[in-house]
Specification:
This protein has 206 residues and is mainly beta. It is built from three helices and 13 strands. The chain has a single domain, classed as Sandwich (Jelly Rolls), CATH 2.60.120.
């Protein structure tokens, strides 16, 4: 696996970030409840939910640590749905819980919509490869929902991709292998998540 971390800012630019060395993260035991508690402790330091993304370096380190130390985590998934090409396995769920924690499998050729998440996000590529295309909003007064592509990145096993809440992307599963990703997201802001349509220059709640 490749140990590289990336961050996509609000303008859609994908930037390399320092990644923790695997041997510094090894633990005799490291459980999911420890991981979730530590993530909550990190984001509790934020002054506001919109500022939580400032703590992504610490969150990325914890994500790499849980994937490195938890074989169990890598076994929690199901084959993609034949019709949609996707299957989402929720790893923890509780009413009012401010985190989304899931494993996602996608079959080769699956292409997501163009969307943002309305919160910070961290994706660890466990298996397979995904090509992420990044977009940014162009805001002339007559076309407030116009978006344009900025660049792309091929996410390979061992790499982490993290997002600013306003980052816009589209993911495509490439190659011949099913993609398996561990995904962690903060609390989505009300009316903050959109699906974009460049041809019509429109956006819908997602």
């Amino acid at each position: 696996m490749i140990s590289k971390d990336w961050f996509v800012d609000e303008t859609g630019h994908c930037q390399s970030r320092p990644a923790s060395r695997t041997w510094n993260l090894l633990r005799e035991s490291y459980y999911m409840h420890q991981f979730l508690t530590e993530i909550l402790d990190i984001i509790d330091n934020a002054n506001h939910e919109l500022d939580e993304w400032n703590y992504l370096p610490q969150i990325r380190r914890k994500v790499r640590q849980i994937v490195t130390n938890s074989y169990w985590l890598k076994t929690q998934y199901q084959a993609p749905n034949r019709e949609t090409g996707v299957h989402v396995t929720t790893l923890y769920d509780e009413i009012g819980y401010p985190l989304t924690v899931q494993n996602v499998t996608t079959q080769p050729g699956t292409l997501s919509s163009i969307h943002n998440h309305g919160t910070w996000g961290v994706i660890f590529q466990i298996q397979g490869e995904e090509r992420h295309t990044f977009w940014h909003r162009v805001s002339p007064s007559d076309k407030p929902l116009r978006i344009e592509p900025v660049g792309e990145h091929l996410l390979r096993p061992g790499e982490i991709l993290s997002f600013h809440p306003d980052a816009i992307h589209q993911a495509e599963t490439v190659g011949g292998e099913t993609s398996l990703t561990f995904q962690l997201y903060g609390d989505t802001q009300p009316k903050g998540r959109f699906k974009f349509e460049p041809k019509t220059q429109t956006a819908k709640y997602f």
